[in-house]
Specification:
The chain is mainly β. It is 5% helix and 31% strand. It has a 7-stranded mixed β-sheet. The protein has a 3-stranded antiparallel β-sheet with strand order 1-2-5, with no helix packed on it. Keywords: Lyase, Metal-binding, Zinc.
Length: 146
């Protein structure tokens, strides 16, 4: 039996769920993630778009100057909670902000990505790999051990 995962925004206007495991989890340090999260990085789960079910209508924003490979952001129009990012280079997946998960502690990142943009004061986990820019493109049938 596949495990169910769910989450949503702070006010509950947008909820989401999926069955099965995410393909991977990354700590993304690109400038776009810094601005979207209000932090030095954003922990993101890579989920096959075909299995993600969304209730409610998140608002989309794409800044005029894209930074990183996932500049289109989806967030709650009511409370502003960041929920998803759309990767420009892989329409088969959606990036889910781990903090929006009901069970965010169930996952662990497999790498720090876009370290080219990492802030000098950000402390990265020395036990996971570092990638200068993007990780390899993951297809829905791929999965990195979490």
């Amino acid at each position: 039996m596949m495990k169910e995962y769910s989450g949503g925004c702070a006010c509950g206007a947008v909820r989401f769920q999926w069955s099965g495991s995410p393909l991977a989890m990354y700590n993304c340090h690109c400038r776009s993630c810094q601005l979207a999260s209000g932090s030095a990085w954003a922990p993101l789960l890579v989920v096959a778009r075909q299995v993600l079910r969304i209730a409610g209508t998140p608002r989309q924003h794409r800044p005029p100057k894209a930074q990183g490979n996932h500049a289109t952001r989806l967030f709650c129009a009511e409370c502003g909670s960041p929920l998803f990012a759309l990767p420009d280079n892989n329409p088969a997946v959606l990036l889910v902000h781990a903090a929006a998960m009901a069970s965010a502690d169930a996952f662990k990142p497999v790498a720090d990505i876009w370290t080219v943009d990492a802030l000098p004061w950000a402390h990265m986990d020395r036990h996971i790999p570092k990638m200068f820019k993007s990780p390899p493109i993951l297809e829905p049938e791929d999965q990195v051990s979490l």
